[in-house]
Inverse folding.
């Protein structure tokens, strides 16, 4: 099994979003929610429309789910970028409140598969010229990497990911020795 990387370049993230949006609004919403929530792919794919919409069809402020892997409750706000993508997606076609958010075209009311999510992500990243190892965990790692780069405390990211230690989280989000060395090279007091 290959070790996948986050998407570090914000320009490439923008290009992936634009590409996905031009091809399939569902895939754009999946990618955008994935990189803005830090959810595992299994939790993303199991989201129901009722997890993001109220009974009256209004986008909820928060998503509250039980994580498949840990069994823990995960409750977080829907940020502006993810909210915008979800609204565009949900307004693009008829929906069933009991249906899966990222519904497969195959079968009745099934989510897209993990393999299909990988294909979508891998094809988009390859098309925009990303030259790092990509996988479905790339979405989660991208969230953590950019949170860290924006100055969020590593212990908060650790808690969001349910990791055992900050060092596990740093390794998980792809903070390399070059990144650590850069601290020494750029701090000139």
């Amino acid at each position: 099994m290959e070790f996948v990387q986050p998407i570090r370049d914000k320009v490439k993230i923008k290009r992936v979003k634009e590409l996905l949006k031009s091809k399939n609004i569902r895939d754009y919403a999946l990618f955008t929610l994935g990189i803005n929530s830090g959810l595992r792919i299994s939790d993303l794919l199991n989201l129901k429309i009722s997890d993001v919409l109220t009974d009256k069809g209004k986008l909820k402020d928060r998503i509250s789910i039980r994580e498949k892997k840990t069994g823990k409750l995960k409750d977080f706000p829907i940020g502006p970028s993810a909210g915008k993508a979800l609204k565009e997606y949900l307004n693009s076609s008829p929906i069933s409140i009991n249906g899966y958010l990222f519904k497969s075209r195959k079968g009745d009311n099934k989510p897209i598969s993990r393999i299909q999510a990988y294909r979508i992500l891998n094809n988009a990243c390859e098309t925009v010229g990303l030259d790092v190892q990509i996988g479905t965990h790339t979405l989660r790692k991208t969230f953590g990497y950019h949170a860290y780069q924006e100055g969020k405390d590593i212990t908060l990211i650790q808690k969001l990911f349910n990791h055992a230690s900050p060092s596990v989280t740093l390794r998980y989000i792809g903070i390399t020795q070059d990144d650590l060395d850069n601290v020494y090279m750029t701090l000139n007091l």
Q: What stands out?
A: The chain has one domain: 10-186.
